[in-house]
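Q: I have 615 residues here and want to know how they pack in 3D. Can you give me a structure?
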Amino acid sequence: MKRRAVQRAAGVLCAVALLLVFVSPARAGGATVERTLDALSRVAGITAEQLESSREMVKTLDYTNMRVFRALCGLPDITAAEALRLLPGMAGEPINYEHLQLFEQFCTLEGVTVAIALQALQEMKELDYVSVWAGVSLCRITPLAPDQALTAIRMLRTMHDPARWAAKSFFEISGHSADTVREGLLSISRFSVDQSWAAEANSRIAAITVQQALINMAAISRIVPENIVNVKALLALDGMTGPEAHTWLTGYFSKPPTDHDADYQLLPAAKKTLLQQAYLNASDHVVRAINNLHSVTNSDGDEISDAQLASYSFGKLGTFFTRFPPETRSRFEARFAGQAKNGEKGAAIATLRQATSFARMETARRLSTANIYVLMTRVSVLYDSSFRLILISELHKRIAAAYGGSLLRFMQDIDPENMHVANFVSSLALKARLAMFLPADAAGQEAVIGLVLASAFKDENNLVLFAATFEKLLDGILPATRSFLIDRMIFRARNPTIFARLVRTILQYYLEGKPKILGVENAARINEVLAQYDSPPLAKYGKTPFAEWRQDGVLSGLSVFHGDDDGRIIMTAKPSSSCWRSLSGTAMKCMRPAATATGSMTISSGRCSTWWNRK
């Protein structure tokens, strides 16, 4: 018993010791004390006796306080009397490491006095994290006077975080003057969040000059909101230059969206590919905007019910209009305002829903054709309704009007370097919409499929999506076109490279699992090719080894449920078990006896991804 009591007491003492370590100020070691005393010794007029009598006081300071004191001792107007007066007060100076670095950097500016430094110290301690690091970059600009730096730091406090990051990047361009700092800060302070991200990307362009950055920021301020995410993505591309960025900003993005298709036609092939890459990099933002407009939703894209909307004030309902394009607002805001004035909550909610639906179509209409083309390759993240009802509908009209309905002419013109053709056509096939674009004759289909294969064979990523939609692609083409496609794939499969092995694996998968879609003749030709290479059977990789997993009597599963087009999740599953139940969440983990390891699952709405594993 005594031994246990001693052990408990020892444990308590250890815990108290650890707690004291974390809650008490960090005291600096001997080397730091000596460096601080050395800094004090360099102050004009300090005596050896004063220095020695200060040693104990210095030892009471924590690490950051010592560095603050050393920075003050390095100022040109510090006197021995002033240093000794300040020293006792340093012990109670609360400052964290980030603020310390800003203060030290500020003290390196020419003309900083003790009075200005102490004033700056008090202001810096109130700064948030992002402002601190923007301020550090600011204070590395040597031409700045201390009062100019403090004015800029005060401006940073009034900005939102993306603007502060934009300012930080702008400060890090070499060649600044006090005037350029002021001009840039004034521009950035007026920017929206998205404009700030674009301004940050602009300042990070390799070798950009301060003047080029300022000129580009002026152009960024004129970009319409729906284009700004694409601008940010373009400016962030590798190899971008300041002058090239200015050409894009003023010669393309600053123009009305209705001009973009005509301007795109004039671009050389390499520029079209560059712009498509920017569209692809920015596509998450655009996809989210279109998806979230499937209904009245919150910021996470979750649908808001009529009952919940009815509990909102008219003012709160009106805030939803701020995310709509201008044409939608002008079309519906007056009607909504009238209904709000008359207290017609139900009618106002109906108007809001109509405006939301209209905004979704208008958002697509305001996109360039090249942008829609690239977005449609994001089939895995676009809601079915966004893909089928909005983007395909809009693109189909444009192909009919500008290309006489020719899918081949459209792809050759919009994507001359054939970067996204395979993913685009695979996406159409996956969503069962290829037939509305594909020519009816074999020759026309072969021309399209030839372009698709050339794109799919560019790299492994393109080939993966092509393989995933291969069955639907074969279903949608004529038998003669199917043989043409198989011929091309067999040709690419006849060599020892890794890429050829991938092609053979695709052919083997469909030969073993879905031979009917290939046809007897095509299957025989594939067999002939596979016989020439080492092709291990794929069947064992496509079957979950439940029998093996059930041997220990326990099975675990993780199911992740993805929201459907309407933002709802409705899931039911059988057999009945404590872990199978109706859900309205995003994930479920269950542990159950092996006896119930098989059963059926019905997903009423949304998609389900399930991973099984042994415990």
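Q: Anything worth noting?
A: The longest helix spans residues 2-23. The longest strand covers residues 554-562.
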